[in-house]
Design a protein that fits this description.
- It is a single chain.
- By secondary structure, this protein is mainly beta.
- The protein contains no helices and 5 strands.
- A hairpin with a 6-residue loop joins strand 1 (18-24) and strand 2 (31-37).
- The protein is elongated, with a radius of gyration of 16 Å.
- The structure holds zinc ion (ZN).
Length: 77
């Protein structure tokens, strides 16, 4: 007999993987929206600000609810 447990801890793999997340640019202070890949639990990358084009350092972690937590800092930190 096959049994499917829907409460499996890997359920979050089936969630929408790209999430829009608003952050505030550490350089110009503008709020910009970035797409966060929720299928990767922990990531660190640099993306240019859409407003001032300076490189923002992103520190992204996904919690168990699949919600992204995004920390941004300027490159010199
Ligand atoms: Zn900016």
């Amino acid at each position: 007999m096959l049994e499917f447990n829907e409460a499996e801890p890997n359920h979050w793999q089936h969630m929408e993987q790209l999430k829009e997340y608003p952050i505030q640019c550490p350089y110009c202070g503008e709020t910009i929206t970035v797409l966060v890949d929720c299928s990767i639990r922990q990531q660190n990358y640099i993306e240019d600000c859409q407003v001032c084009c300076r490189p923002i350092n992103f520190d992204v972690s996904i919690n168990f609810d699949g919600e992204p937590q995004v920390m941004v800092s300027d490159e010199n930190e």
